[in-house]
Specification:
- The protein is an alpha+beta fold.
- 23% of the residues lie in helices and 36% in strands.
- The chain contains eight helices and 20 strands.
- It has a six-stranded mixed β-sheet, sandwiched between helices. Strands 11-12-13-20-14 form a five-stranded mixed β-barrel. Strands 15-19-16-17-18 form a five-stranded antiparallel β-sheet, with no helix packed on it.
- Strand 16 and strand 17 form a beta hairpin.
- Helix 2 packs parallel to helix 4 and helix 3 crosses helix 4.
- The longest helix has 18 residues.
- The radius of gyration is 25 Å and the shape is elongated.
- The two termini are 25 Å apart.
- 35% of the residues are buried.
- The mean pLDDT is 92.
- The structure holds adenosine-5'-triphosphate and magnesium ion (MG).
- Magnesium ion binds next to helix 1.
- Magnesium ion (MG) binds next to helix 1.
């Protein structure tokens, strides 16, 4: 990346007592002003990464840099970093304004200045009228906003958010995603969020860091991760992806032609690698990139319908290609009334222009 990073993790490893590896030589550059999300399954090292950036955890090896300066041994409170914790960690005996102003009261600011900044922060999260409310009187969404206001009032360079929306119901969660994004754009502050919800990560982030077992699998913008996942793990973690063991046939310009049984597949390679003819690779195909027809066509393969699931605008077909290979196809609901039923044979082929990645391990 051309821009100098605001935060840089350099070969950061964290080994906990008992030899448990939390982070395994992570390299990560976070650019000033971006909304970056750490995404991955439970235990992959998301919280540990945040704690290392915040200074709550010392890396076993490697360095943390801020603006090019090594801050690895700097204490948490000496870093221009603030954290919004999953459980909000609000003070129950204090009212909203006291909670938000707590961080400021540790600094040498006049009472008027403190009150002004608390008011501003609460305004930004839409809680200006709750200044004197007790925390126990607030809804989950309102508590979430207080926690946010408390974190932004100190004007950190980096705001760390660990699963900030996980306690909210689905509807409120979606609303708060939009608000978080708006707040981040308004402040221009760098947000580093942790989630294990891929939909949330895709909808809110400028870039996503996909983590697996203490390592980074891929860092990319949401659309790139979706269209061009680099590994099988990323492909299967982001959205639904059919992973087909395929035989390499030939290269045709940028396209790599594969065959999975009778089915012809066109794939692209992120690395530029061209396999040898006859080599086996995994090709990823999104359910919407297959066509299902009642007649055979060139490059199509017959498949038996084993399940049909109503998805609103589309029907999700579960199909058996033979030799134990199942595929999922999202087919538009047909206006003419024709629909596949369980037991039917559908002829599936790749949609023209579909972008199917050839995946590494
Ligand atoms: N203080 C600790 N002592 C020992 N092991 C730890 C400690 N903290 C984390 N770990 C281990 O390190 C690994 C990474 O943990 P981490 O909390 O970073 O995962 P996570 O990605 O945040 O998972 P989750 O989605 O469940 O919150 C896990 O195997 C975890 O058990
Ligand atoms: Mg965690």
């Amino acid at each position: 990346m051309a821009l100098d990073p605001l935060v840089r993790l350099q070969a950061v490893s964290k080994v906990f007592s008992g030899g448990i590896v939390g982070l395994d030589a992570i390299d990560l550059d976070i650019v000033g002003g971006e909304f970056i999300t750490l995404l991955g399954p439970s235990g992959c090292g998301k919280t540990t990464s945040l704690r290392v950036i915040a200074g709550f955890e010392n890396p076993s090896s490697g360095n943390v840099l801020l603006d090019g300066r090594d801050i690895t041994s700097l204490r948490p409170f000496d870093r221009p970093v603030n954290t919004v914790f999953q459980d909000y960690a609000l003070f129950p005996h204090m009212n909203v304004a006291e909670n938000v102003g707590f961080g400021l009261s540790l600094r040498k600011l006049s009472g008027t200045e403190q009150a002004r900044r608390v008011g501003e922060a609460l305004d930004m999260v839409g809680l200006a009228d709750k200044l004197r409310a007790r925390v126990s009187e607030l809804s989950g969404g309102q508590r979430q906003r207080v926690a946010l206001a408390r974190a932004i009032v100190c004007e950190p360079r980096v705001l760390l958010l660990d699963e900030p929306l996980s306690a909210l119901d689905a509807h409120l969660r979606e609303q708060m995603q939009v608000e978080l994004k708006r707040l981040q754009a308004q402040l221009g502050t760098t947000f580093v969020m942790v989630t294990h919800d891929q939909t949330e990560a895709l909808s809110i982030s400028d870039r996503i860091v996909v983590m697996n077992k203490g390592r980074i699998e891929q860092i990319a913008a949401p659309a790139t991760l979706y269209d061009r996942p680099a590994t099988r793990f990323v492909a299967s973690f982001i959205g639904t992806m059919n992973l087909l063991q395929s035989r390499f046939v030939a290269r045709d310009g940028e396209r790599l032609r594969f065959a999975a049984g009778d089915l012809s597949l066109d794939a692209s390679s992120e690395t530029g690698e061209t396999p040898a003819a006859g080599d086996t690779r995994t090709v990823g195909v999104r359910p919407e990139d297959f066509l299902a027809a009642s007649e055979a066509a060139e490059g199509s393969a017959p498949a038996r319908v084993s399940g049909v699931v109503f998805h609103g605008r589309t029907l999700r077909l579960h199909l058996e290609l033979g030799q134990g290979t199942s595929v999922i196809v999202d087919a538009p609901r047909r206006a003419d009334g024709f629909q596949f039923s369980v037991g039917d044979v559908a002829h599936i082929s790749l949609r023209r222009g579909a972008n199917c990645p050839m995946l590494s391990a």
